[in-house]
Amino acid sequence: MEILPGIHHVRFPLAPGVWGAFYVLTGRRPAVIDTGKPDTPSQFLFPYLRKLGLPLKAIVLIVTTHRHLDHAGGNASVRKIVPIPIAAHRVEAPFLEDPWREVEEVRFRYPDDHPYRGLDRAQIMTKLLTSVPVDIQLEDGDEVELGDRRWQIVHSPGHCSGIICLFDSRTGTLLASDSFQAGGTADGIAIYDDLQAYMQSLDRIQALGPQKLIVAHPFRPFYKPLFQGEEVAEFLAACRHFPSEYDRELIEILREQHRPRSLGWITDVMRVLHSCYGPRFLTVVTLRTHLDRLTAIGILRQESFGGHLAWMHT
Ligand SMILES: [Zn+2]
Ligand SMILES: [Zn+2]
After folding, report:
1. Residues 61-65, mean pLDDT to the nearest whole number
2. What is the DSSP code string of 128-160?
3. With the CA atoms of 258, 263, 268 and 270 taken in that order, what torsion angle do they form, in degrees rounded to the nearest 10?
4. Are 48 and 9 a contacting pair, CB within 8 Å?
5. Distance 304 CA to ligand 1 centre (A)
């Protein structure tokens, strides 16, 4: 649907009760922001462009907001048909060009809890993006003309290290993708692998003063794609509120324990508390950055317990 003039927000099903979305910008320089999962172009993007009467070869650029499979997953299938250039942030480009890097990073950071345990290389490959070259590496502050608007690239790390927003300062419109998550989707909690960066990105966006903000998933408690006027402040306040709730809950859970608890154990307790039914690893990612921060400020202590990392209240 055309959610704002020249900005089409196209949803596709991701999980029970959860949609993903990509954006199509129409006008003088038509563009696609994200391509969804590997099957999203054939099922949703191409049919949508046909409905608009916009040939695929008219698309001047694909901007990939970040490396996740529900945003960059369709790049390879589009490129198989038309060699549209792909742009992504400099930090994100190596992960798009060599998806195995993500596997290595994840195995290193979450040794006991990563989702590739027990899988061989071939099995892991089926779960990854197909490698796609990034033709244009974006930097924070770059400007790109897409649709009929001039967009500023805003690097907004936190959800992952190279995620970007696109900001049209003339109308105060921010395409936020997954950068800010309020309480996360119905099947999980907010997802970010770097809490400090996430909070700094929130500060940064708040200072830009967006008047309209468009997200890529239905985040609780709002469950809607577009925030306008005062709703923007409400959404950004919720994005600040939930991390402080998770901190509070983690402290409470660990205070009652008399021995160190592993990330896996803590994850299971939090998933029950928040009725999470989505991928377990996504919860692991958020909780790990909270545990690291609570440890850094001396509220928790990190220990080795049975050869695994564990945390306890100090
Ligand atoms: Zn994401
Ligand atoms: Zn996403």
Report:
1. 98
2. SPPP---SEEE-TT-EEEEBTEEEEEEE-TTSS
3. 80
4. no
5. 31
- Residues shown for the chain: 314
* Closest ligand relative to 70 C-alpha: 2
Instruction: Give distance in angstroms: CA of 178 to centre of ligand 1.
Output: 5
Q: Where are the alpha helices (DSSP H) in the chain?
A: 40, 46-52, 69-72, 75-81, 93-97, 100-109, 121-125, 195-208, 230-255, 263-273, 280-296
17, two tokens: 């009760």
DSSP state of 36: B
Pairing verdict, β 173-177 and 164-168:
antiparallel
CA of 12 to the centre of ligand 2 (A): 11
Domains defined for the chain, CATH in brackets: 2-242 (3.60.15.10), 243-313 (1.10.10.10)
Average pLDDT over residues 260-280: 95
> Are 41 and 77 contacting, i.e. CB atoms less than 8 angstroms apart?
yes
pLDDT for the residue 70: 97
Q: Which residues lie closer than 8 Å to 60 by C-beta, 6 or more apart?
A: 29, 30, 31, 84, 85, 146
